[in-house]
Structures are given as structure tokens and as C-alpha cells.
Input
Amino acid sequence: MIDYTDRQILSILQESARTSNAEVARRVGMAPSAVYERIRKLEERGVIAGYHARLSGGELDLGLQVFLWLRGPAGAPPDEITQALAQIPEVLEIHHVAGEDALFLKLRVLDLAALSRLLRDRIASLPGVREARTSIVLDTFKDTVVLPVGLEEGAIPLPE
Output
């Protein structure tokens, strides 16, 4: 069970995973040792899946963001395809989706030439890939990994 205090802690850590336990404790009104124990339990349960630095693709010469729909054999995509795709560094996300296309991917590459090489040499050549369609991102208005944890107005009753 994730209670209100856990949600507060998760919200703070999503804001900045570098927030010290002492600062988290101050903000939620608990002892640092109690906050440490709650965070440890959230990690053990997999609620907190990891801590990462969020990098800017544009600053790393990966300014072109692309969404890719792949059609393969009917039904669930073969493990060989998803495992091969997972090994490609430019592939950031792989989703099995409902609809005509079996897989939906998010990619980051340098430019159109890099995208063309990636599609031709590493993706279209995978056994079972029948069709690939791309959508190139022109502008991004929101890009976040922050999940709503239930502290939003109207989401859960606040303690009295």
C-alpha cells in the first residue's frame, strides 16, 4: 500500500532524485531514518525502479526524435525482433501495441542520414519485419518521465 507520505516522497524524488534524505524528511515532516527506510522499501518493491540523469538529446548530437511503427508477423512480435531492437542504442522505447502495427518505437538519432542508415542496415533487415513507418518529431511541447503520484488536486483526499 502506498500511502500519502510515500506519495509525497515519490513526488520529491521525481522532482530531483538528488534530494538528500534529510531534505526529504524535512519536507514531509519525518525523521531522516524513517524516510530512508520508506525509500528502501519503495526500492525493494520496485515502485522506485532506478535513479538516472536525464540527458539532452540535442546537446549530444541526437537531435532528431522519431517514432517508428513496425509491422511483423501476425500476432505478438517474435522475441528475436524485440531482443534485437533492444540492443540498438538509438532505440529508446519499444512497445507492443494493439492495431495494425505490432511495435511502436521511440528513436533518437543525429540526422536524417543516420535515420536512413539505422532503418536500412539494422531494423528493416531483421527477419520478420515486413513494414516500417516513421514519424519525425518537429516540435516537442511536453516530454517527461514524471508520473502522477496522486498528489494532484482532486486525485486523493488530503489528510486533515
Remarks:
- The chain is about 35% helix and 15% strand.
- The chain has a mean pLDDT of 90.
- The helical segments are 4-15, 21-28, 32-44, 79-86, 112-123.
